[in-house]
Isoprenyl transferase (Coleofasciculus chthonoplastes PCC 7420), 246 residues
Amino acid sequence: MQTILKELPSDLDQERLPKHVAVIMDGNGRWAKRRGIPRIMGHRRGVDTLKQLLRCCDDWGIQALTAYAFSTENWGRPIEEVEFLMTLFERVLIRELKEMMEENVRIQFVGNLTALPQSLQNQIERAMTQTQNNTGIQFTVATNYGGREEILQACRTIATQVQHGQLQPEDIDEALFSRHLYTANIGDPDLLIRTSGEMRLSNFLLWQMAYAEFYITDAFWPDFDREAFHQALIAYQKRERRFGKV
Ligand code: FPP
């Protein structure tokens, strides 16, 4: 059995850790295919990986983790897989809520949640309400999320305020715009990790990723363990973040 390092590995600098890590959890299907088992087994294993990563972020002092669980484009998957994922999200929420409370996790879901099955919406509401005063890691799950759609809904809200004379066009700046995004309560990600080698953003946090460092690994999501995360953080700490300056 693998020993779990609860402490931050000594080759990482506590002062220069990302505050907010975002993950695109890709490769569950391929992980399963390689083992000759159904794709859904890959998603099941993917949940375990996400849980381990959340715990690891918490252990090592990272304040926020945001995971892309279901995009607005994922409805195009076979109906059985979509239904499996919706049921999986719901079951996981029911099963993990007690532990999230014990571990002081604050969970929120972002995306167009009204299009999700009502029973899932109920569990999301319950988990968000119960954990809202927790003070530990902020865990955000993007579900039925699309970056362009998020930007459009912010534009509509702002345009309506201008139309009603509550806001002047010149008042619209980056800070105001950010406050109208789903992620208003969390800072922008410092580090984006994408597994299974794809080099795309796939409509994830388009506005918020403006200055994120990207780390792409060939590992399939279910194989992305603590050591893989450790390697991602080493790579991150080697980067020089200039935010457009020299
Ligand atoms: C991408 O792999 C993964 C998904 C679309 C689903 C990820 C969701 C989870 C791991 C569950 C998270 C759950 C909660 C409640 C927080 P893929 O199917 O695109 O794999 P492939 O690219 O190999 O086909």
In short: The two ends are 47 Å apart (CA to CA). The CA atoms of residues 112 and 149 lie 9 Å apart. The helical segments are 28-34, 39-60, 79-102, 118-131, 147-163, 174-179, 226-238.
